[in-house]
Amino acid sequence: MNKRIRNLLYLSTLLLISIPESANALPGFARQTGQSCTTCHTQNMPKLNSYGRHFALTGYTLYDKESEIQSLIEGTDVALGLPAVLNISAVLKAQYAYSSLQQRADNGDPIAEERGELQVLEGSGLYFGGRFADNVGGIVSLTGDPSEDRDVVFSGKGVLAYPTFDGFSGLALYSTQINGIFSGMENYNTGLYAPLKQFESPNTTNAAQATGIGRGPATGVQAYYGDERFFGTIGLTIPSQNSEGIDAAASLIPFGRLAYNQPIGEWNLMVGLYGLSGDVEASDQSLDGLIIDSKANIVKVHKEGYGLDVEATGEIGGMTTMTTVNLVIKNVVDITLVGALTTPSLQQTDNQAASIEFQINPIAPLGVKVAYLNYNNINTADTQEFIKAYDFDAYSFGVNYLFRQNIIVDFQYSYNHPTETVEYYHDIYVSAVLAF
Question: How many Å apart are CA 189 and CA 182, to the nearest integer?
Answer without folding.
Answer: 12
